[in-house]
Amino acid sequence: MANTSIKLKRLAEVEMLRAEIKARRAGRRLLISGVGLVAGVFALVFLTYGIFLWGAERFGAISTAMSIGSTLLAIAICAIAVALVGPGRSEEIESELVKHAIDKARNDLQRDIDALEDRFERVSSGLANLIDGRKAGESNGAGGNINLAAITMVLSAAGAMSPTLNRYIQPILKIIS
Fold first, then answer.
1. What pLDDT does 12 receive?
2. How far is CA 173 from CA 18, 131, 146, in A?
3. CB contact at 8 A, 52 and 65
4. How many whole angstroms separate alpha carbon 14 and alpha carbon 61?
5. How far apart are CA 110 and CA 115, in angstroms?
6. What letter does residue 139 receive in the DSSP assignment?
7. What distance in Å separates the CA atoms of residue 3 and residue 5, rounded to the nearest whole number?
8. CA-CA distance, 81 to 58, in Å (whole number)?
9. What pLDDT digit, counting tens, does each position of 71-102 carry?
10. Chain-wide mean pLDDT for the chain?
11. Cα separation of 160 and 153, whole Å?
């Protein structure tokens, strides 16, 4: 439990790794698609124009336009089909490994949180017993003051550990004083 902050840091690192992998994949696809698209458009324009000029002399303008149009349509359909293909097996395995690491880090951190909650529950029930002892001691005198002093001392010591914690403890000390 002493290394909870290390576990929390590990969880954040793994989450960041997962986001970085996704961003890298998207950036790579976008860059490659952009370069391919620009080059393809220029090549297609020049080839289409050249083929049209050549075909118009030999076969006529209408048949050449129909042939080029159907060929371009087939190329567009193939490009869309390739773009819709999902991630490869290696990318799926990489994602599963990252997901497993995230789940492990979350479970590890959850165990520490549960242990802290259990410890807090034990401390708060101990304080409740001290307060109950004070109420019972009020009838015979001195016992209540000892328990009240012990509670005040414990809360003051806890408040001395952290300024943030002290902000929450000071109102409690004012109430029980």
1. 80
2. 46, 13, 15
3. yes
4. 61
5. 9
6. T
7. 5
8. 34
9. 889 988 998 888 888 777 887 888 888 888 88
10. 80
11. 10
User: Are 14 and 101 spatial neighbours (Cβ–Cβ below 8 Å)?
Assistant: yes
Greatest alpha-carbon span in the chain: 119
Rounded to two decimals, the pTM is 0.37
What is the C-alpha to C-alpha distance for residues 54 and 64, in angstroms, rounded to an integer? 9
d(CA 78, CA 72): 10
Cα distances from 25 to residues 21, 55, 80, in angstroms, run 6, 42, 18
Give dist(CA 104, CA 7) in Å, integer. 10
Q: How far apart are CA 18 and CA 11, in angstroms?
A: 11
Count the Cβ atoms, other than its own, within 10 Å of residue 170. Answer: 13
Contact 18, 102 (CB under 8 A): yes
Residue 146 pLDDT level (bands cut at 50, 70, 90): low
Q: Tens digits of per-residue pLDDT, 22-43?
A: 888 888 888 898 998 899 888 8
3-state secondary structure (DSSP) of residue 12: helix
CA-closest candidate to residue 155, choices 177, 132, 172: 172
CA nearest to 65, candidates 76, 54, 77, 79 = 54
**CA dist., res. 108 & res. 1, Å (int):** 10
Residues in the chain: 177
